[in-house]
Amino acid sequence: MRIFLIILISLYFASCKKQNNIVISDNTKTFSKFPKEGKVEFKKLVAFKFGNPRQMITIDSILILANYASGQKYYLYNYSLKTGKFSRPYVNRGRGSKQILGLTNIGIYKNSLYLNDFTAKKMLLLNKNNTIKDNSNLDIKEFSFKGNRFYRSILIDGLHAICTGSKKSKYKIQIIDLPTSKIIDEFGRLSNRPKNTPLHIITKASLTQTLLSPNNKKIVLAYIHTDVIEIFDINTKKSISLKGPENFNTEFKNFQNRWFENEETRVAFIGGATTNKYIYLLYSGKNFSDEKAFKGSNIFVYDWEMNPVKKIKLNKEVYQICITDDDKTLYSYDEDTSYIVSATIN
Question: Which of 12, 15, 150, 302 is the most buried (most CB within 10 A)?
Answer without folding.
Answer: 150
